[in-house]
Write the structure tokens for this entry.
Amino acid sequence: MIPAPMVAMNSARLVQRHVNALLLSTFYVTLLAKPIKRKPASIASGFSVKMTGSQNANALKSGWNARFLISNGAGTAGEGTALHGARAEHLRDKTISAITFLQQRWLSVYRDLVTQERESQPQTPYRKRIELEKKRHCGEYLLRDLAARTFLPGYGFPTDVVTFDNFTMEDYIREKSQKSRDKKDREDNVSRYKGLPSRNLGVAIREYAPGAEIILDGRVFRSAGVSLHWHNINADTNEAQRLDCAWRCHKCGTIGYEEGMSSSGMLFCSNSACGEKIIMDNRRQVLQPAGFVTDAHAPVTNNIETMKFVPVVPAWVFVKAEPVPLPNPLMGYMASGADGHVFQQSLGEGGHGYALCLSCGRAESMLNENDAPKSMEAHYPPRPGKADRDSQNHRLICPGSTALMKNVTLGALARTDVFEMVLRKPQNGEYLPDNTEEGRIVAMTLAVALRQALAGVLGISAAELGYSVRPVRLEDGQSVLAVQLYDVISGGAGFASSAPVHIEAILQGMVKQLGCRHCDTACSECLLDSQTRHDHDLLDRKVALAWLGD
């Protein structure tokens, strides 16, 4: 029997999204003069382009101030959940604040596109690029966009979405010579956003990383760089781009993320019980990309025999929560919370980060700690710009070629629900050691099996959950490994943090998952899927079973 999917209500952020959905639907059904069409509304109509931001905010607030909405809607939506007891006015104000922020951000990009379109020369690749971007920006479905931006519940839908812009000169020439029919996406197509290929930011950092090759509609595109400005994806100015600093303690697993801070200088663990100096291997100079782009002037091929991929780097996961003993205290303890942190990262092909041009966004993997690729020394911008050609229509070298940022990590920090467990053998009290290969194999295998078990208990897809391991410092100073699960959706969905409620069933399911009869180490029947294949060399069910014992 397949269990019914579970909708968790133990996360305040998740419950607030349901309140947002209730108020938004009531607003459209009850207060708008025009009836809702069966066709999904575009974001341009939903955000009322012709109205100013303040006018829209006032309209929303006046509508959602209605007495029946407060008493019969938001006032009861939080009962029996993580928001039980919250005042209806407070929930409504949080909804208005969230939708106003999204609207202002959308309108800011829209007005910038209109300005750039007005100032550009007609019949040029740059003009065509702006026209396409404006059309995509206005034509995106409202509800899909609000789910992607975590305003509405997004079960099964990716959140914190970024795109891969694969516009090329071939597209410009083809569309200039013949008017192609408009192809509109289905509103429930979760793999495209604004008409472009899209992924959750944490996934995109791996799949769309500069240097990676992506197959789209039978054609192979190479990622050439990033969109720099998170608030203005189409900016062509040399505006200063913020770089952040991320770190993780090699002893206790605490992670830190400092916005606008350099990674140079000495850093120490912020955990008062630890205080270790942060080693250089666990420090990152981070850029959070707004999107990824291909080189518009590079030829597109259909050769799939020599595909290039960028290695996947494990996520850093941490939650600050009080430990709770397992049902059998001799087996260890667990901790969970709805305010955990997950840092996704990409370090390039060789693990030395990227050489990044802060002027145009072109990026290439570093050859070693000090040397950038020769292709970055005098490069052209990857996207058509309004000042990328001289008076003879020749392409100009990017002015940022002589001032590259080196050893840059592409990364993103997200808050979400996290569950972790520190296991020990009941027979001898042995923990999972952090300094042995066998310890890491056992920890990773148990994390994957635990993920499958929790997904089965909750009736959700295993893809909704991520997994990881981290070092934990014991009271005696010993460093051991914890197995971790976290919600993939940014902001959390209440899945991982609900694990303690079902801990006995989950532990039984974990052991059962390791009892596969089809393989010696791992296979698609037990541990391998599209996500865990990246860790196939650290999965061995028999080694994990031997460590667990009887």
